[in-house]
Write a structure and sequence with these properties.
Elements (H helix, E strand, L loop, with lengths): L9 H12 L5 E6 L1 H10 L6 E7 L9 H8 L6 H16 L13 H11 L2 H11 L15 E8 L6 H9 L3 E10 L2 H4 L1 H19 L7
Parallel strand pairs: 1-2, 2-3, 3-4
């Protein structure tokens, strides 16, 4: 599954994911970073079949200072080289962590910049930044009723610590796991730990769903 390109609305991205899962009887949404924002948006709709939610590196309200959003949105006017060497270099700096060099799969800032340069066209990057500029669903978090796991890195310059706490406070059936020695990009730097954390949560949900309610 790949996100649509060039959409400037979080709800529009959520519509795309909704179409991907509409025929599933039971599923867990796992979203990382921008994907976490989309997964949360879809979960707020309480779609049929959703039994669990995993959010990592996301937020319920845009935590970025206004100047960062403005700077990122101006990337639409940046020609290709400026986007790759300017905008993405700054973004990579924000995503990088002091733990990345000693990670399971070591990364440098240039690796993150390359990742975005190869997978996120300039128009899509600008559209996605624009889509979260005024994003704020804090008052709606009580609509998430499925078990929710918040996976938080130990060091996150891009999103910060408050974002996870805000969701933890607002989602009734949520808990947080902080992955030690990780940064915002732990899906790439610590894939085994990240995957195992999700697998344990999914197994837990599966176990709960098969439990005899009379023994609960």
């Amino acid at each position: 599954m790949r996100l649509p390109e060039n959409l400037d609305s979080v709800d529009a991205y959520a519509d795309g994911v909704a179409k991907e899962v509409e025929n599933l009887d039971s599923y867990v949404l796992a979203g990382d970073s921008f994907g976490a924002v989309i997964s949360l948006t879809l979960a707020l709709r309480q779609p049929e079949g959703l039994v669990g939610l995993v959010l990592s590196g996301g937020f319920a309200a845009n935590p970025l200072p206004a100047w960062k959003g403005l700077a990122a949105s101006l990337s639409r006017f940046a020609p290709g080289p400026l986007y790759r060497q300017g905008t993405l270099r700054f973004h990579a700096f924000q995503m990088a962590s002091k733990f990345d060099a000693a990670a399971e799969i070591p990364h440098k800032q240039k690796d993150f910049r390359k990742l975005f340069a190869e997978n996120t066209p300039r128009r899509s990057y600008t559209a996605r930044v624009t889509s979260v500029t005024h994003f704020d669903v804090v008052s709606q978090l009580d609509r998430v009723t499925v078990p929710t796991l918040l996976i938080t890195p130990a060091h996150d310059k891009l999103v910060g610590d408050a974002a996870a706490k805000q969701m933890l406070d607002g989602i009734a059936n949520a808990r947080e796991v902080v992955l030690p020695g990780t940064g915002h990009m732990f899906r790439f730097t610590h894939p085994t730990l990240y995957a195992q954390t999700i697998a344990d949560f999914v197994a837990e949900i599966g176990s709960s769903s098969t439990q005899d309610p009379r023994s609960a």
